[in-house]
Design brief:
Number of domains: 1
Helix content: 55-70%
Distance between the termini: 19 Å
Structural class: mainly alpha
Oligomer: single chain
Order of helices and strands: HHHHHHHH
Largest sheet: none
Strand content: under 5%
Shape: globular
């Protein structure tokens, strides 16, 4: 008799905590993307033009080209939405977590929370080196190292299909 379950070494508490973390981060990404899509005339132009830190010239150059800015705005909006949706429903979470870390790294590097920069604009929760972007990067890393979407997300159906195929085709 076949069992349509995936074995896990995680406790129920661990699975629950990881799932809650994944869903909350997914909601945050999804919400941020939807706000940008539904805000008439939203653009990252001012955010990029006011960036500081060692990579500010790169971010400012994006804002100075209308074509590149349009691409960056579109990638930002839809990247947030797709990463958020993926994490929220638990589909392709490992890949989405990597993309989420990359996107958050761009946010972090555009306004790095370093004391010598003396920046107040656009910096929420600046606590010298550690800010919410860095914390969310670390949380996504936790989701990569301890995945749960194969147990509590739509990835479960992909893993079940792979498991069932391997059970039917013993080598």
């Amino acid at each position: 008799m076949k069992h349509n379950t995936i074995k896990s070494d995680y406790s129920n508490w661990q699975i629950s905590a990881l799932t809650i973390l994944r869903v909350l981060i997914g909601w945050h990404f999804l919400y941020e993307g939807l706000v940008k899509i539904y805000t008439p005339g939203w653009t990252a132009k001012n955010y990029l033009l006011n960036s500081v830190g060692p990579f500010s010239s790169f971010f400012k150059s994006i804002a100075q080209s209308d074509q590149i800015l349009n691409i960056a705005d579109t990638l930002n909006e839809w990247g947030l939405i797709l990463i958020g949706l993926s994490l929220f429903v638990g589909l392709f979470c490992r890949l989405s977590s990597f993309f989420g870390m990359a996107l958050l790294a761009f946010y972090y590097l555009s306004y790095p929370p370093f004391a010598d920069l003396g920046v107040e604009a656009y910096v929420e929760g600046n606590y010298w080196i550690v800010n919410r972007n860095l914390i969310e990067i670390a949380a996504l890393l936790i989701l990569v190292v301890f995945p749960s979407s194969h147990i509590t997300g739509l990835d479960r159906f992909i893993f079940l299909n792979k498991k069932n195929k391997s059970d039917n085709n013993p080598s």
